[in-house]
Structure of PaaI family thioesterase:
Amino acid sequence: MALQMDREALNIFLDRTFPQVAGQVRVQSLDERLLISRLSVDHQHLRPGGTVSGPAMFALADVTIYLAILARIGEVALAVTTNASIDFMRKPEAGRDLLAECRILKLGRVLAVGEVLIHSEGVEDPVARCSMTYSIPPKR
Amino acid sequence: MALQMDREALNIFLDRTFPQVAGQVRVQSLDERLLISRLSVDHQHLRPGGTVSGPAMFALADVTIYLAILARIGEVALAVTTNASIDFMRKPEAGRDLLAECRILKLGRVLAVGEVLIHSEGVEDPVARCSMTYSIPPKR
Amino acid sequence: MALQMDREALNIFLDRTFPQVAGQVRVQSLDERLLISRLSVDHQHLRPGGTVSGPAMFALADVTIYLAILARIGEVALAVTTNASIDFMRKPEAGRDLLAECRILKLGRVLAVGEVLIHSEGVEDPVARCSMTYSIPPKR
Amino acid sequence: MALQMDREALNIFLDRTFPQVAGQVRVQSLDERLLISRLSVDHQHLRPGGTVSGPAMFALADVTIYLAILARIGEVALAVTTNASIDFMRKPEAGRDLLAECRILKLGRVLAVGEVLIHSEGVEDPVARCSMTYSIPPKR
């Protein structure tokens, strides 16, 4: 499916709309098949023991799937998450950024489904897997 | 099942171990059947439009289920979330705290399962439902 | 919310529309808050060891939530499951029927969310928990 | 990870242990990265309208992930599903078999996580996505 927004447009949108994550999450690459985002891990994401917290990984998955949907339908839409399922499989490695690879599996008129695999940078085995459904509001 | 920690002990534990949410999340009531926690909603939890963000509700569910498990097994354990499923059903009402009601459905030797309903205070229909599995480390 | 179909109407609908489960699943009770269905367990639902299989419990949850939605919106609608999450928590007891208690948590214009607790009859601890989202087609 | 069972061994195991699905589900291909199984669709899997039912797709995902785990750890283990999450995204095409592609994302000492994409044969867009956690019993 043709993309409506490129990497730069998504990052500008991100800074403007999600000031909470500005400077932490970046779209790193994007094509019609795959969007990869990066979480620059710092102390605020960490749990005791030095690993990234579950909610920080959930937030990364959420914003990544949201951006991958916007890349396809454009900035106008106000999509909301209706359902999410996440498996935390391994501890992220301390001191490494997280990379989230997102594929959009369905982009319907009303519902979109995306899935994300999260890795510690440079480590092959994934730390988490997440799938989410977004509800897409009707066009005006 | 008999409780190992009471409301006050859980709140002290919360402040010491999760400084990120200190002062935001409190255990409000606790018995053998139900734990209710409160998220004091402020600007950092909000999305454009004045509603609480999905990741903030996920974090509330996560810490609430964690506390309900600790109430039963005591503070020694280092439980980790392995799986979570969450349905976002309605927009939280602007300007109201969120209450999370947690029931523990299973407390096994290795796995525990809890579920949470989240409401805007004073509103009957739930805004979100979440179930999570925690892995409980073996006793030393 | 007022009910559009009663227990008898749902059971007649079930026999007519789901011949695969005819005689196996019955609506046992129904009010505005709770629908309880029963799976008459026989050999076809069993796994080695004498317990009911996961897919048989999934099918029970699916039909139960579907019936609870129809009870509220009437038989005309052709709702489809879009998402399901299920936790298998304990082995069902051999030789006991399963009871599925269903609550509808949301009944929107487009999406409905229901949740089910499944018990072996006469046993307090639940064997499974399931939540599902149904997509409701637009009225013609 | 080295495989302990090949395609033929898995199919023999399937016929012996799951007589309910004998002749319906087959392992079609298998390597260290991917297991693909096939559901020969017939009338018993169908819903009104000619599409495969949700529970039949759940059962296909369940047995496929189970076989992919056994391929890695051998036939001795008695693994059980503890959690599943499934998204039904499109109607399967009438008159086509279903193919289930399974990847094992984690194979721990206690828990394994697998995920499956289900397609109608010859159709690119997936009809369903499923992830499951299996609990692996301790070795004797």
User: Anything to note?
Assistant: DSSP finds two helices and six strands in chain A.
